[in-house]
Design goal:
By secondary structure, the chain is of the alpha+beta class. The chain has 2 domains: about 150 residues, Fructose-1,6-Bisphosphatase, subunit A, domain 1 (Fructose-1,6-Bisphosphatase, Chain A, domain 1), CATH 3.30.540; about 120 residues, 3-Layer(aba) Sandwich (D-Maltodextrin-Binding Protein, domain 2), CATH 3.40.190. The chain is built from 7 helices and 14 strands. The chain has a 7-stranded mixed sheet with strand order 3-4-5-6-7-8-9, with helices on both faces. Strands 11-10-12-14-13 form a 5-stranded mixed sheet, sandwiched between helices. The longest helix has 21 residues. The chain starts with 7 loop residues before the first helix and ends in a 6-residue tail after the last helix. Bound molecules: D-MYO-inositol-1-phosphate (IPD) and calcium ion (3 copies). GO terms for molecular function: hydrolase activity. Its EC number is 3.1.3.25. Keywords: Hydrolase, Magnesium, Metal-binding.
């Protein structure tokens, strides 16, 4: 249950403010000679200096605005809080797009209740996802809806559409581990004949927001971390959509499936059958 002292709308305004500021930073200060600063779990799992700078900015700003809250981000540095609220941030979601200057990356900021480092125990109450290049800003607050603005344009409420799965445009993504990718390739091959088409756009946070605004119909991915998923999850559910794992529970590392009421159920059922056929990741 959400502690009564929490004001999701006020938290979403903070999320929006800091995400816009970090978005400006990664856009305005992207070095011309941007390279890979370090790699993490594999050679393809990259970090740039701007991932770290964006996270540092979010850590500092949220610490000033909400000193009692926890902070849980993708890059190094975090803190435990005392308020029961934590900020779950992806300082650049879509780092590979950012490295290649493909305009599909975002800053993702969510306020969650529960413990974001323990799977299944937390849920988002406020969120903002900002694509600094397109100037799109998606926000959501628990029980107060999801909205999209572009630059200084009007704020529009989002409503998930629910196209039949067979004519749904389906987003997905791939992790950085070679065995996982083989498994994901086998799964996507079995999903492709059952949907309108597949898109791999390169930012899980934006993929989820696209389900909310209808520029994708459904989305699934294995292996997401809380920072990939926290903000976009709330944007979808506040737009009337559904986000779960394969069993209908908390979305996360095993699987995240997003869509409208009907196509989510159909995609989840399809993925259940496909995963049973394709077998375990370690066998690929
Ligand atoms: C990645 C992106 C990508 C998804 C990967 C994520 P990053 O996040 O969201 O679309 O397929 O699973 O790890 O590393 O760019 O923040
Ligand atoms: Ca990353
Ligand atoms: Ca990410
Ligand atoms: Ca990232």
């Amino acid at each position: 249950p959400v502690p009564p002292a929490i004001d999701p709308v006020a938290l979403s305004e903070i999320a929006e403010r800091v995400a816009l500021e970090a978005g400006r930073l990664i856009l305005d200060e992207r070095p011309r000679d941007l390279g890979v600063a370090e790699t993490k779990t594999s050679d393809t799992d990259i970090v740039t200096v701007m991932d770290q700078r964006s996270q540092d900015l979010l850590l500092t700003r949220l610490g000033e605005l909400r000193p009692d809250d926890g902070f849980h981000g993708e890059e190094r540095g975090g803190r435990a809080g005392t308020s029961g609220i934590s900020w779950v941030v992806d300082p650049i979601d879509g780092t590979v797009n950012y490295l290649y200057d493909i305009p599909a990356y975002a800053v993702s900021v969510a306020a969650v209740v529960g413990d974001p480092s323990t799977p299944g125990t937390w849920r988002p109450v406020a969120a903002a996802v900002v694509n600094p290049l397109s100037q799109e800003c998606f926000t959501a607050a628990l029980d107060a809806g999801a909205h999209r603005t572009v630059g200084a344009g009007p704020r529009r409420r989002l409503r998930v559409e629910d196209a039949p799965l067979g004519v749904s445009l389906c987003g997905t993504g791939f992790g950085y581990d070679a065995d996982r990718r083989r498994w994901q390739g086998a799964v996507v091959a079995e999903v492709l004949p059952h949907v309108r088409d597949i898109r791999r756009l390169g930012s899980a946070a934006l993929d989820l927001c696209r389900v909310a605004d209808g520029s994708l119909d459904v989305y699934y991915e294995r292996g997401l971390n809380p920072w990939d998923l926290a903000a976009g999850w709330l944007v979808v559910t506040e737009a009337g959509g559904v986000v779960t794992d394969l069993e209908g529970g908390h979305p996360g590392a095993t699987m995240t499936v997003a869509g409208g009421l009907g196509n989510h159920a159909d995609l989840r059922a399809l993925l259940g059958r496909v995963v049973a056929r394709v077998g375990q990741e370690k066998d690929h």
